[in-house]
Specification:
By secondary structure, this protein is mainly alpha-helical. It has helices at residues 20-34, 46-53, 57-69, 86-106, 111-125; strands at residues 42-43, 73-75, 81-83. A three-stranded antiparallel β-sheet has the order 1-3-2. Strand 2 (73-75) and strand 3 form a beta hairpin. Helix 1 crosses helix 3 and helix 2 (46-53) packs across helix 3. 17% of the residues are buried.
């Protein structure tokens, strides 16, 4: 997907129970995970994307902010928002996984139990 193709034909669905910012956050995350939005790809400004998607600017701002906090996006003021290098995100996820694995092991949980707990927590977070 070329930078100027984002968001393409995709639009958030206001009829879903999932908030619009969350639909956008998931869409961007999916595109990054698929490689359709490559590291360094520049995303539209908050106002431009809000106008294109016909949503309030705070909807886009919240999605961008949450993805930035997760290490998926990087914002550099007027330079714009880009897809962050995966190394930082992977390092953050590996550190969190190490903490979880340590706690699970210290509590005597099996690998399968730990995975089931992580799966349930991940689903709740989505």
């Amino acid at each position: 997907m070329a930078e100027n193709d984002f968001p393409g034909r995709w639009r958030p669905n206001p009829e879903l129970a999932v908030p619009l910012f969350e639909q956008l956050r998931r869409r961007i995350l999916d595109l990054v995970d698929e490689g359709a939005l490559a590291v360094g790809a520049k995303l539209p400004s908050v106002r431009a994307l809000a106008g294109e998607l016909d949503v309030a600017p705070h909807t886009v701002a919240r999605a961008y902010r949450e993805l930035e906090e997760a290490g998926v996006l990087a914002t550099a003021g007027r330079a714009g928002t880009t897809v962050a290098p995966r190394a930082r995100r992977d390092e953050d996820l590996a550190a969190a996984a190490a903490v979880f694995a340590g706690v699970a092991a210290s509590q005597g949980a099996s690998f399968e139990e730990a995975v089931a707990l992580l799966r349930a927590a991940f689903r709740r977070a989505m």
